[in-house]
């Protein structure tokens, strides 16, 4: 049995490699829902959907998010009515959000139930769980150039504001009283190996760890926890991890990630470009494993997954 903590695209690429080395039915993925948001009354779960679409082989690899062959006619049509279109929802993608919202509001289904339905419809063989069925929302407190503070939803900061406003603080609203989704703690307790995917440590892995019980479960299993470093050569491969890590005092380096994860993670897989950082990772009390981690192809992702599992075998 294997468990994985996952954000969106970085995690999805890694998981696409993992399912090539392990029987998918042995894998339980715990996905971040701190990025979830409501748009036009629809419940959007960006990270869960990135995983589903990628594993289904239906993701838009050029664009880096969403579905392949996507169009945006509905969003364009909405601008006629003056509706904001900064969060681009594709015409095909909207079907997922409509289905999710109808099941939750109309049928009273939980997010975990709908996530399973969506995954089944895309013929995923692994178990995909949201971290919680409760509402947890990542909120970013920023400093405006005029000196004022503003609290933005994660998507407002990242997409609408292009991650430009300086970050002062990150909160996971609702996490303190949220309960892990059914099966989450069980999966962490029973897994032979727990993988922390190459995901944003602050806003993808952070919200999952903030759900009561999850961090403690990892601490108990520390020896069996292995993370893949999302930082290569001093920068994230894509996305705003550095814009969040640095202001929160997490060095944008393998050692910074190691110090951030050390309490609950015994092994960190770092990139061969960062081989010189291995000693600093070890000094943080985490065992470094050096390999190619830039997932330029499904083949490299599979090799990375294999190496990650071997690191704790
Ligand atoms: P998001 O929710 O879509 O931003 O996805 P994640 O949090 O899962 O992924 C974002 C993180 O994945 C970023 O910090 C990237 O640096 C990292 N990432 C993306 N692709 C790769 C890759 O090929 N290799 C490694 N090591 N990290 C990656
Ligand atoms: Ca995300």
* Average pLDDT taken over every residue: 97
Structural class: alpha/beta
Give a count of the beta strands, DSSP E runs of length 2 or more: 14
Bound molecules: guanosine-5'-diphosphate, calcium ion
Shape: globular
Q: What kind of sheet is the major sheet?
A: 7 strands, parallel
State the helical fraction. 25-40%
Individual helix count: 13
The spatial strand order of the largest sheet comes to 5-2-1-9-10-13-14
- Low-pLDDT residue intervals, each spanning 5 or more residues: none
Helices and strands, in order, run as EHEEEHHHHEEEHEHEHHEEEHHEHEH
Cα distance spanning the termini = 12 Å
Radius of gyration: 19 Å
As a percent range, the share of strand residues is: 15-25%
What would you note in describing this structure?
The structure is a single chain. This protein starts with a strand and ends with a helix. It is globular, with a radius of gyration of 19 Å. The chain is built from 13 helices and 14 strands. The protein has helices spanning 9-21, 46-55, 73-79, 91-107, 111-121, 154-160, 184-190, 201-209, 214-220, 241-245, 254-261, 278-283, 298-310, and strands at residues 2-6, 27-31, 37-39, 42-44, 127-130, 137-143, 149-153, 166-173, 193-196, 225-228, 231-232, 235-236, 267-271, 287-291. Helix 1 packs parallel to helix 2 (46-55) and helix 7 packs parallel to helix 9 (214-220). The longest helix has 17 residues, at 91-107. With 313 residues, the protein is an alpha/beta fold. The chain binds guanosine-5'-diphosphate (GDP) and calcium ion.
